[in-house]
Amino acid sequence: QVQLVESGGGLVQAGGSLRLSCAASGRAFSSYDVGWFRQAPGQEREFVAAISWSGRVTYYADSVKGRFSVSRDNSKNTVYLQMSSLKPEDTAVYSCATTKREWKDSNFDSWGRGTQVTVSS
């Protein structure tokens, strides 16, 4: 089983950038696809981005396309989410999770606790 720990969140002004990390422990992390999700207070969890085990395939929610970029370094057991041109509506707790199945929300598991991102206007 894979354990995930997110980091890199914080307070940033609108238009700024942050890079989140999702560090994994456990076996065979490099064989898992990884997704990033976010949840704002009072709202449902929302898919943000995903990356295949090899890093060759990525997918983004329309709301972040062109502003966010997901990457991974399997030698470091880490997946990154580079966020640029941040908006106040990007404020949320960001979490990562793994899957070996179709990229449907319900197929992701091994969730981390998340890291808070707050974007001020």
Label the overall shape: globular
Number of strands: 10
- Quote the average pLDDT: 95
Order of helices and strands: EEEEEEEEEE
End-to-end separation in angstroms reads 40 Å
The secondary structure category is mainly beta
Strand order in the sheet with the most strands: 2-10-9-4-5-6
How much of the residues is beta strand, in percent? over 45%
Outline the biggest β-sheet.
Answer: 6 strands, mixed
The count of helical stretches stands at 0
- Helix residue percentage: under 10%
Write the layout of secondary structure elements.
Elements: E1 3-7, E2 10-13, E3 18-25, E4 33-39, E5 46-51, E6 58-60, E7 68-73, E8 78-83, E9 92-99, E10 115-120
Parallel strand pairs: 2-10
Antiparallel strand pairs: 1-3, 3-8, 4-5, 4-9, 5-6, 7-8, 9-10
Please give a quick description of this structure.
It is built from no helices and 10 strands.
If you had to describe this structure to a student in words, what would you say it looks like?
Strands 2-10-9-4-5-6 form a six-stranded mixed β-sheet, with no helix packed on it. It is built from no helices and ten strands. A hairpin with a 4-residue loop joins strand 7 and strand 8. Helices cover 0% and strands 49% of the residues. The mean pLDDT is 95. The protein has 121 residues and is mainly β.
